[in-house]
Amino acid sequence: MMKVCVIGSGLGGLTCGVILAKNGYEVTVLEQGVQVGGCLQCFTRRGARFETGMHFIGSAAEGQTMHRIMSYLEMTDDVRLSQLDTTGYEVIGLGGQQYRFANGREAFIEQLVSCFPHQRDNLERYFDAVEDVAHASSLASMRNVSSTAALHAEHQLRSINSVIDELITDPQLAKVLVGNLPLYAAERDKTPFATHAFVMDFYNQSAFRIVGGSDAIAHSLVRTIERYGGQVLTRQRAVKIVCDDTHATGVETATGDYYSADYVISDAHPMRTLELTDSHLIRPAFRQRVNAMKQTVGVFAVYLQFRENTLPYMNHNYYGYNTDTPWGCEFYDEQSWPKGFLYMHFCDRYTDNGQWSMVHGQCPFARTGVILSYMQWSDVERWAGTTVGHRGQDYEDFKQRKAEKLIASLDKHIPGTAQAIEHYYTSTPLTYRDYTGTEGGSMYGIAKDIGLGPAGRVPHRTKIPNLLQTGQNINSHGMQGVIVGTMVTCSELIPGILF
After folding, report:
1. Which H or E run includes 210?
2. What are residue 352's DSSP bridge partners?
3. Which residues contact residue 47 at a Cβ distance below 8 angstroms, ignoring those fewer than 6 apart?
4. Who's near 442: CB < 8 A, 6+ residues apart?
5. What is the number of other CB atoms lying within 10 angstroms of the CB of residue 89?
6. Cα separation of 112 and 120, whole Å?
């Protein structure tokens, strides 16, 4: 039996583990932390649960792409989903108005036509473009994993704003359509329209929160790996990918253990993978290129615990902007921050006679939520050499100032929220760096940039023939993006894999 050693237990590492274990490989997943899951992790404070990364997923209704994937990965019995409001799963607060994104092509268009009655034809053309790009990708539709050549070339090379500004003649509507850009940290004139199209199509089909938290996905994947004879080991930090003159032979960990392998797959950030690999097969020019790649912006998070039975559960995501456009919120100063934020409630769970119940179905109040806003690494770089829980009082003061400002901003958009908060907790790009290993605390890893072309992409293959990469940097972030990248990686070992 061929041995595979996977470094990292994020979504990419665990899904690789499941796919390979189901196909007869002996799988060992090594996780440096005490919890598995990477961005799937949740945490508990004062008995309240909070998400850290995977806040909601799309295309998970029966028969849709994500439902098929979850069935193949044997998650459907373990992971409970709660559908967001189909008439407005996303709400954009911009210029004193609120705009709703509804599920389904016709409903989406009708909702926006009610606010922009002269834009129906343009919205039809916009939706045509989204569907053309999303459906042209054999990877996104799970029909083929052999290459990325099927991606719509024109819209990979054109920016989001250039395409939308060409299709939409109302400037306000053009801004509204990118109102959820924090989901992919888009940058004006840089992020390809294809990225926008995949995200919009993915969630427009259907949108769900994960009941009880996305760590249910991680735990389900671990159980499946173990059911097929594999193992997932925590507190096993990889310190070296051991290579001979021609290939990788295994992985050494900080505990002194060595795991031999026929294949090594790294779910770590590509910069971390290169740091682990001391081989002449990796050329200096490639190392320099990867190390020079720009990362997406980081995030400041305020995790909110609400007073019991005070705040109605909000069954949609809310994007609030304090400027006249969603673009450019990553550029700010002390006075202008936050220019925008994303606010969501956690879909809690409780038991009633042993049965799962969803909070918005039987309990009208939210227990917890989160506010997310962009934060640059430069804001926290002065504490870069510190560790979690030992950063000093000036860091705690910094977080408190930011949290209070962000909560006040939220309260202006949704009055009464602030007074419902009982406790709050915070994280910064430093926290994200320390828990996920991403460079500079980046939200989504390496940034997509139309100006870089192929040089802006990290391949799943390396010059070491049996060392492969997976995770959000190899294809894209999010559940769909990461799993598509997983399929590409696993196709090296299992040609023609299809969910």
Report:
1. strand 207-210
2. 355
3. none
4. 295, 296, 297, 298, 377, 429, 432
5. 24
6. 8
Q: Residue 91 pairs with which residues in a beta bridge?
A: 100, 318
Angle at 372 between CA 42 and CA 357, to 5 degrees: 45
Residue 237 is encoded by which pair of tokens? 């930090």
List, in sequence order, every residue forming a beta bridge with 488; answer none if it has no partner: none
Cα(279)–Cα(326) distance, integer angstroms:
44
> Which DSSP string do the residues of 60-94 spell out, in sequence order?
-STTSHHHHHHHHTT-TTT--EEEPPTT-SEEEEE
pTM of the model: 0.91
**Residue 43 backbone phi and psi in degrees, to 5:** -140, 160
**Polymer length in residues for the chain:** 499
What are the structure tokens assigned to 271, written together? 């910069």
Hey, what amino acid is at 6? V
103: β partners? none
The Cα 191–Cα 194 span in angstroms is 8
As given in the structure block, the two tokens for residue 47 are: 């008995």
Q: What is the pLDDT along the chain (499 residues), one digit of tens a residue?
A: 899 999 999 999 999 999 999 999 999 999 999 999 888 889 999 999 999 888 899 999 999 999 999 999 999 999 999 999 999 999 999 999 999 999 999 999 999 999 999 999 999 999 999 999 988 865 555 544 344 444 446 666 899 999 999 999 999 999 999 999 999 999 999 999 999 999 999 999 999 999 999 999 999 999 999 999 999 999 999 999 999 999 999 999 999 999 999 999 999 999 999 999 999 999 999 999 988 889 899 999 999 999 999 999 999 999 999 999 999 999 999 999 999 999 999 998 643 433 444 444 445 789 999 999 999 999 999 999 998 889 999 999 999 999 999 999 999 999 999 999 999 999 999 998 888 888 888 988 888 888 877 767 888 999 999 999 999 888 777 888 899 889 989 999 998 765 5
Cβ-based burial of 267 (10 A; exposed 0-12, middle 13-18, buried ≥19): buried
The pair of structure tokens assigned to 168 is 């939409």
Is the preceding peptide bond at 117 cis, omega within 30 degrees of 0?
no
Distances in Å between the Cα of 30 and the Cα atoms of 250, 415, 454, 468 are 12, 46, 30, 15
Cα–Cα distances in Å, from 448 out to 55, 188, 274, 298?
22, 11, 20, 15
In this structure, what token pair is assigned to residue 466? Answer: 């049996």
Tokens in use for 91? Answer: 């709400």
- Residues ≥6 apart with Cβ < 8 Å to 358: 80, 82, 211, 347, 349
User: What type of residue is 211?
Assistant: V
Q: Is the peptide bond before 338 cis (omega within 30 degrees of 0)?
A: yes
Structural contact between residues 481 and 475, judged by C-beta atoms closer than 8 angstroms: yes
Local structure of 312: helix, strand or coil: strand
